[in-house]
Write a structure and sequence with these properties.
Blueprint: E1 2-10, E2 13-19, E3 24-29, H1 35-45, E4 62-69, H2 74-82, E5 90-97, E6 103-107, E7 110-112, H3 114-124, E8 125-129, H4 139-150, H5 153-200, H6 206-218, H7 220-236, H8 241-252, H9 260-289, H10 294-314, H11 319-385, E9 392-403, E10 406-415, E11 423-424, H12 425-428, H13 431-445, E12 453-457, H14 465-478, E13 484-487, H15 491-494, E14 499-508, E15 511-518, H16 521-533, H17 539-550
Parallel strand pairs: 3-13, 3-14, 8-12, 12-13
Antiparallel strand pairs: 1-2, 1-4, 4-5, 5-6, 6-7, 9-10, 10-11, 14-15
Length: 551
């Protein structure tokens, strides 16, 4: 709700402050008094662009400030929190335009961009001007109207949840299918590489071990000869080294008691004798295990040849690196087999979610369709009352592919002259027609939609008498549950006001300035009478004005 509007140094306004009612606020005044200037100033805090031509005094900045109560406006508080502005129960929007043309915007005293101001303002104020392209022609608003009347909020919340899940699973399914296509392109190549490695059937460190074994086999005779000589010299020669050590021990043994160092030397010789005997035994054992095996050499050469080719092919150095490549290829081949199972699972899940979304969308669509004709009848009745007897609204609900809000393409069609040629609203309705049509529709959905402050700027152009009275009645009903601000020339509408403001020009010094004041009951009677019969109202006009206020 717009509680207060403060304007300073804007056009021919020096400084004014307006405290608005919570219900129906009517603004009247002579043509040219400055009512449109008020709307221009209001537009600035709603995010419109400005220039220095709006400055009344070029040496002083222009200042427009709007105070809003937002205690029950959760979308507004959510916006403020997300954009990191203070979120109190009172909200202040401010625009300042310096003499040099620089414009600044503020939300709760924090600097803001025009885009932020415009986004926030759209949640606070719904401004209808005669020549605006109104949201009534917007397909989202048209859908929201039917959903509000049909009470689709819970169904839509459930549908959106299922629809989001379906979209997510569909995306995952597409990714799996694309992955499978990519796998299929490389599958044969992966299989060839795996089979090639698998055929060689390598074990851990096998090529390195085979290379070492080949070195032994290739030098078997020389190795056996050397080992035999070692064994012979240690144990089988005329004077075996081990036997010679034993003789040396025997020679020193008688003197062990005389000198402890000789005893230590004997112990060392004994250890050496034992070690030499062990060496001789190991040499004999190794000699017996080494043999030249031409067949084994051939087998090793074949495997090493195959292994070295694979090392070179894959650009690695060791057997274990080849085994890692083989394992990776096996995993890729297994993934191809597994992906078919994953795709089958996703397809089943996707089909189930699609079915659930279709069923919910069908319920939503049925509810929307059930409201279309009753809404048209009620709107067309109201259009006759507000001076548009030949105008007709028609709502077309066509089935389309599933999307975020169901499966309906909703279009409000309009025929202004009973021609039976219905066209989309945005193409055929004039500004005044759209404004009155919007008033009719919003009065019907006011209890179902949390509407912001509604501002109507001269939507009564071209009507009078009973039609103007009915516009006033509708505005009054609408204002019973939300704030309405209307600029009007019609006394029938002015008579319905909860707060009646009068815009006028006055001379201050050498300048003409616009001002505004809240009228008392007696001033209202006089003003409405003047609207009825001219500057000097007749007694009949005054009586008529009193009757309007009483009603």
């Amino acid at each position: 709700m717009l509680q207060k509007l403060h304007i300073q140094n804007y056009a021919i306004i020096d400084e004014i402050e307006i405290d608005f009612s919570k219900q129906l606020n009517i603004i009247t005044g002579e043509t040219g008094a400055g009512k449109s200037i008020l709307m221009g100033a209001l537009n600035l805090i709603l995010g419109e662009r400005a220039d220095t031509s709006v400055l009344m005094k070029t040496d002083k900045k222009c200042f427009i400030e709007g105070f809003f109560a937002i205690d029950n406006k959760e979308p507004v508080k959510l916006f403020l929190t997300e954009e990191e502005f203070d979120a109190d129960d009172e909200l202040v929007l401010r625009r300042e335009i310096a003499a040099n043309g620089k414009s600044r915007a503020f939300i709760n005293d924090s600097p803001a961009t025009l885009q932020q101001l415009k986004q926030l303002a759209s949640l606070l104020v719904d401004l209808h001007q005669q020549f605006d392209t109104l949201e009534l022609g917007d397909s989202d608003f048209q859908r929201e109207v039917l959903d509000a009347l049909a009470g689709n909020a819970e169904l839509l919340a459930e549908y959106k949840k299922i629809y989001t899940q379906w979209q997510s699973v569909s995306k995952e399914l597409q990714q799996l299918q694309q992955q499978k296509n990519n796998f299929n392109k490389e599958l044969d190549y992966f299989q060839f590489l795996f089979d090639e490695l698998n055929e060689v059937s390598l074990k851990e460190n096998e090529l390195e071990d085979l290379d070492a074994e080949l070195q032994v086999l290739s030098n078997a005779e020389a190795i056996k000869s050397a080992l035999s000589k070692v064994y012979y010299e240690l144990k089988e020669s005329e004077i075996p080294v081990a036997q010679l050590i034993k003789q040396l021990i025997n020679q020193l043994q008688p003197f062990a008691g005389y000198n402890h160092e000789i005893a230590a030397l004997i112990e060392r010789l004994k250890s050496t004798q034992i070690e030499l005997q062990d060496i001789a035994s190991d040499a004999e054992h190794i000699d017996n295990s080494v043999s030249y095996d031409e067949k084994r050499i051939g087998h090793i050469n074949e495997k090493l040849s195959a292994g070295y080719k694979l090392l070179k092919k894959h650009g690695v150095q060791t057997t274990n690196e080849l085994l890692q490549i083989q394992q990776s290829l096996e995993e890729k081949l297994q993934a191809v087999l597994n992906i078919d199972n994953d795709i089958a699972t996703k397809e089943k899940q996707n089909a189930q979610l699609h079915k659930e979304a279709e069923n919910l969308a069908a319920k939503i669509s049925k509810a929307r369709s059930s409201q279309a004709e009753p809404l048209c009848k009620k709107v067309n009745t109201l259009l006759t009352q507000v001076g548009m007897p030949n105008a007709r609204l028609k709502i077309e609900v066509k089935e389309t592919a599933l999307y975020e809000y169901g499966k309906d393409d909703i279009e409000f069609l309009f025929d202004a002259n009973k021609s039976n040629r219905f066209e989309p609203l945005r193409k055929v309705a004039s500004g005044g027609e759209l404004s009155r049509l919007m008033l009719c529709i919003k009065s019907l959905v006011a209890e179902s939609i949390d509407l912001p402050t509604l501002i109507f700027d001269e939507i009564d152009t071209g009507i009078s008498g009973e039609a103007a009275k009915q516009v006033g009645v509708i505005m009054k009903q609408l204002a019973s549950s939300r704030q309405v601000i209307a600029i009007t020339h019609q006394p029938q509408i002015a008579g319905k006001a909860d707060a009646h403001f009068f815009v006028y020009k006055e001379i201050k010094g050498d300048a003409i300035k616009t001002n505004i004041r809240l009228l008392t009951k007696d001033e209202r009677i006089t003003t409405i009478a003047q609207m009825l019969s001219g500057e000097k109202p007749t007694a009949a006009a005054l009586a008529n004005a009193r009757e309007m206020l009483m009603n």
